[in-house]
Amino acid sequence: MSLTQIKGVLFDLDGTLADTAPDLVQALNLSLQDVGIAPQPLEAMRYAASHGSFALVDAAIPNAADDLRIQVQQGLLAHYQRINGDHCELFTGIMALLDWLELTHVPFGVITNKPARFTRPLLRKLNLHLRMPVIISGDSTKHPKPHTAPMLLGAQQLGCAPSQILYLGDAERDLLAAKAAGMLGGVALWGYLGENDKPLQWPAHAYFVSPEQLHQTLIERLAC
């Protein structure tokens, strides 16, 4: 498979399309404060932001008892519902890339494991919801990534064969899902990769250090 055959582009949300960590970590810290635990610095927690609320809780309070984990996780979700999007921004270069995709009539969208109650309000705040024919959340299908269900639904809604879609993500499950669905997998190295992540071992077709590099690569490859 080659990048020259791309007819559509799909993105993971947290850590790929948008820098959601500031809101997620603030919600975590508000929940920690509720139970009398000291807050965590953003940079120390950023790597966990792609992996869901329990990953953030476990990064902040490893080996905590289950009842405390659940209490902090539920508090995190409640606070996040209120502050979702307050400090979130698209990664530098993403908006220019999306504008170019739109100009060249390459449809794009999001497949995320974030629940729809957070995904759609966030994309509205980012003024992207009307520009995307595909917004698949973690509860849009019976199974989230790395299952193929959200990927194949995304391909159907995008109107492209999976083999014509570039899917970008910053977590191993993103690339596993892309491979299983027959999509081209691209690793967003600008995302929330932790020290234990080994992206070169993920089943990817391409690696991008920045949205700007991705943009330039697509310009070059799609002109072929």
From TrEMBL:
Domain of life: Bacteria
Pfam families: HAD_2
Keywords: Carbohydrate metabolism, Hydrolase, Magnesium, Metal-binding
Keyword Secreted assigned: no
Protein name (Swiss-Prot/TrEMBL): Haloacid dehalogenase
Native species: Shewanella glacialipiscicola
Lineage: Bacteria, Pseudomonadati, Pseudomonadota, Gammaproteobacteria, Alteromonadales
